[in-house]
Design goal:
Helix content is about 35%, strand content about 15%. By secondary structure, it is an alpha+beta fold. A hairpin with a 2-residue loop joins strand 3 and strand 4. The structure holds zinc ion (ZN).
Length: about 170
């Protein structure tokens, strides 16, 4: 049993539409037309057939830019001369081992052992030292570099990039 929505009347001539109605835009107005009205209007160029009910245009999705690759903590290594870098940076700032130890929230004994090269700071402690002393203590491990630059062995290493970025003029 056909529902009421299956019965269409031409909005131009008012006739009941047998078969499929034509949905068209006539003079800028969307209308349901019978075949003969549609033919007449389309021939004179007044009716433009609508194939479907226009849908609201989907917004184009903007591709999410990948964040710059972060090297996980465990792919960092202490530089070999970490203890010298720490001591020199501390002395340049005129800090005692006790003063620096306090800033780092570690014991002075531990700092002395680190500065003597007898103990390696953890990666997180090294990061703290880097930011307090404004020095570099960590570098990506060789493994991490291999993964990043495997495709092009000629790619600059992190060390090269640092040098290149220094203004030479
Ligand atoms: Zn009609």
């Amino acid at each position: 049993m056909p529902g009421i929505e299956d019965v269409n009347y031409c909005e131009m001539c008012g006739m009941r539409i047998a078969g499929r109605p034509y949905r068209a835009v006539v003079d800028g107005v969307e209308m349901v037309l019978c075949a003969s009205c549609y033919m007449k209007l389309s021939r004179s160029g007044r009716a433009v057939l609508l194939r479907q009910t226009p849908r609201p245009q989907k917004k184009k999705t903007i591709p999410v830019r990948r964040a710059p690759k972060r090297i996980p903590l465990d792919q960092y290594d202490l530089v070999e001369d970490y203890y010298e870098r720490i001591r020199r940076a501390r002395e340049a700032k005129g800090w005692t081992t006790s003063a620096l130890a306090q800033k780092l929230r570690i014991s002075e004994t531990m700092l002395r052992r680190i500065e003597a090269g007898k103990m390696k700071p953890s990666i997180s402690l090294a990061k703290k030292m880097e930011s307090i002393l404004k020095i570099q203590l960590l570098e990506p491990t060789e493994l991490a570099e291999e993964e990043d630059y495997r495709a092009d062995p000629g790619t600059l290493t992190l060390g090269d990039v640092v040098i290149v970025r220094k203004d030479e003029d």
